[in-house]
Design a protein that fits this description.
Blueprint: H1 6-17, E1 32-34, E2 38-41, H2 44-55, H3 60-74, E3 84-91, E4 96-102, H4 125-129, H5 140-151, H6 161-169, E5 171-172, H7 175-187, H8 202-208, E6 209-210, E7 215-216, E8 222-223, H9 226-238, H10 241-244, H11 247-257, H12 268-272, E9 277-279, E10 282-286, E11 289-293, H13 300-313, H14 325-345, H15 356-359, H16 362-369, E12 402-409, E13 415-423, E14 431-432, E15 435-436, E16 473-476, E17 482-486, H17 494-506, H18 512-517, E18 521-523, E19 528-531, H19 543-554, E20 559-562, E21 569-575, E22 594-600, E23 607-610
Parallel strand pairs: 19-20
Antiparallel strand pairs: 1-22, 2-12, 2-23, 3-4, 3-13, 4-9, 5-8, 6-7, 10-11, 11-16, 12-13, 14-15, 16-17, 17-21, 18-19, 21-22
Helix pairs in contact: 2-3, 3-5, 3-6, 6-9, 13-14, 13-16, 13-17
The structure holds glycine.
The site of glycine has 10 residues, from β13.
């Protein structure tokens, strides 16, 4: 059993500050500590709802339902009933870890040329995004019911109370949501019925925009969403079937088929046929810990696992702290190698053969790690994992997304890591019965083959789920106890954010909040990115000087500095310094007292709750 206490983390921070970092720890967000249960989300109202459910005896699955229904209301740009999610779940009773795939899927009539015009050229991302073609069959309502049926304790209807109350009484629009509406209006100028492309649906337009000025509703506006309250009431009374059959399903199909930009093809039958899929987690040994994540159709678990496996293989190149140029170099090179494999091999494994075991094979990762030298390798080529049986052309698109991450540990020792999404900010911009529709199908490759006719694994196919980068993760210690629950939004940057947060905790001994406060860096097998520090949110460091150092000493030709807006939500289980025996979190810890240490991301509106 591994003793990982706050004292170690504090010592690590003393070490780091003594290495020339100018910002003192007191100016940055600090970790929250609780004894029994904890929930971390990207919004204070969602955290409050989850903490309340845990307090009245609810499980992590119960709290997740309350959190998800509130997030769909108060952070509607990121996730909701009209989207999909992935969950990694540890069940304390059985000691088993499972994953739930509630990814949106393509309609039964989808074809591989979905996003191509008559000449075979791409219709363009913006055009596809803001259309009925991009909407996948949502998985979130079915996922909530599935988790509650198996792992819930409180009555289903009870879990909808916080969101229903907020939807009816109103809540204040956040600065973050208001500025994201403004950003979309800037990108899509025009206010008249015929001019609007993004909020082309009048319901969404009137809900989010001041129709007199054509500007985003300001932060602090009292938002009421009675249609959403009615949808929640139907779900609470009749379960997920209320969403997948009958009037709600009909309205979704009508909205998709009647899209004012490009009509889509989703039918009521597609909705009625939707099922969540329970899948084996993909796990890798990293420094004696078991890091478990989501397998295909997400690339998250495999890519996070590859990055960690590769950096562990090259400890000789690892720096002495997370912002040391050696560390940044090693992590970036590992990112290049992981993204080369991800782009080529990962897609929905119900449709294509993904070499899951081979991609995490220790010998394979050692061979891949051997490509790393003291200088930038440039664009990495994909490898040949041992169990590879089909070769594909790469799908290299990297995008931003509207996504949110939720981490929960309950008093019973269950742990839940969920990344939930409607894809782009505000999904496809169309609102049905109080929730936004996703544009998840733009996560498919728009091309179905390369110039030589080699098929792309992530091409559109009927009923297929598009490749994701979402990386909900649970890390276990060498006794099988939950050590860390983490994950983040951020499009394909999710992979780097999550891998870095795990490295910061496991390798550098930081607590989850300190790990989040470290500025980000990564490479998705193109340019190298360094996060510009944010006063009071991230540790201060000289990003431009580090970029120069990478160019001069490590021969990087393309290093860019800028914002990297992660939304990490992390919980670490720590053995208490309190000697008294007690019941802890996880089956192997019955005789040890544990505490929960939580970190939320202040790059968004993250908060930690619990007691
Ligand atoms: N829509 C974000 C992702 O699935 O990666």
């Amino acid at each position: 059993m591994r003793f990982r206490t706050l004292v170690i983390a504090l010592l690590a921070i003393c070490l780091l500050t003594s290495m020339g970092w100018s910002k003192t720890e007191t100016e940055l967000p600090t970790a929250v500590v609780t004894k029994r249960e904890m929930v971390v989300t990207a919004n204070p109202l969602a955290t409050e709802a989850g903490a309340h459910i845990l307090k009245i005896g609810g499980t992590a699955a119960d709290a997740m339902v309350a959190v998800q229904t509130v997030l769909g209301l108060v952070e509607p740009q990121s996730s909701g009933l009209g989207g999909g999610a992935f969950i990694v779940y540890y069940d304390a009773k059985t000691g088993k870890t499972t994953t739930l795939d509630a990814r949106e899927k393509a309609p039964a009539t989808a074809t591989e040329d979905r996003f191509l015009d008559d000449a075979g050229d791409s219709i363009g991302f913006s055009n596809a995004w803001q259309s009925g073609l991009s909407v996948g069959v949502p998985g979130t309502p079915r996922m909530m019911e599935y988790m509650h049926d198996r792992y819930g304790k409180l009555p289903w209807q009870r879990l909808f109370v916080p969101a229903k109350r907020l939807a009816q009484k109103g809540f204040e629009l956040t600065e973050r949501t208001s500025s994201q509406i403004a950003e979309l209006l800037d990108r899509n100028p025009g206010c008249g019925d015929d001019e609007r492309l993004f909020f082309r649906d009048p319901t969404a337009f009137e809900y989010f925009v001041d129709t007199d000025t054509c500007e985003a509703k300001p932060a602090g506006t009292l938002m009421r969403n009675k249609a959403y309250a009615r949808t929640l009431r139907a779900l609470a009374r009749k379960g997920a079937d209320a969403f997948y059959y009958g009037p709600i399903a009909r309205d979704i199909a009508d909205a998709v088929q009647g899209d004012l930009n490009i009509p889509g093809d989703m039918t009521e039958e597609d909705l009625a046929n939707y099922e969540v899929v329970e899948r084996e987690p993909v796990c890798i040994d990293y420094m004696g810990y078991d890091v478990c994540g989501m397998g295909p159709p997400s690339s998250g678990g495999l890519a996070v696992g590859q990055i960690l496996g590769i950096i562990e293989n090259r400890d000789d190149l690892m720096g002495s702290n997370p912002l040391d140029a050696d560390t940044v170099h090693l992590f970036s090179q590992a990112g290049r190698l992981a993204f080369a494999d991800r782009n080529k091999y990962v897609a929905d494994s119900d449709f294509v053969s993904v070499p899951v075991a081979g991609m995490l094979d220790p010998d394979y990762l050692a061979d891949r790690a051997a490509f790393i030298t003291g200088t930038d390798m440039g664009t990495a080529l994909p490898g040949y994992p041992p169990d590879m049986i089909a070769s594909y052309a790469p799908d290299t698109r990297a995008k931003l997304s509207g996504t949110s991450h939720v981490s929960i540990i309950d008093r019973y020792g269950n742990a839940l890591s969920m990344t939930t999404t409607i894809e782009s900010s505000f999904g496809n911009g169309v609102m049905v019965r109080g929730f936004l529709l996703n544009n998840e199908l733009t996560d498919f490759s728009f091309d179905f083959e390369d110039a030589d006719g080699i098929p792309i694994a992530n091409r559109v196919e009927p009923n297929k789920r598009p490749r994701s980068s979402m990386s909900p993760s649970i890390v276990f210690d060498d006794d099988g106890n939950v050590e860390l629950v983490t994950g983040s939004p951020g499009g394909s940057r999710i992979i780097g954010y999550t891998a870095q947060s795990i490295m910061n905790v496991i390798h550098f001994g930081l607590d989850p909040q300190e790990a989040i406060n470290i500025p980000h860096y990564q490479n998705r097998n193109s340019y190298t990115e360094l996060e510009t520090p944010i006063p009071g949110v991230t540790l201060d460091y000289d990003a431009e000087a580090l970029a120069e150092q990478l160019r001069d000493e490590y021969e990087y030709s393309d290093v860019r500095t800028g914002a990297m807006t992660s939304g990490l939500s992390s919980i670490q289980v720590v053995e208490s310094d309190d000697e008294k025996p007690g019941k802890g979190h996880g089956k192997g810890r019955k005789h040890f007292k544990t505490i929960l240490v939580g970190g939320a991301d202040h790059r968004r509106d993250g908060t930690v709750g619990g007691r």
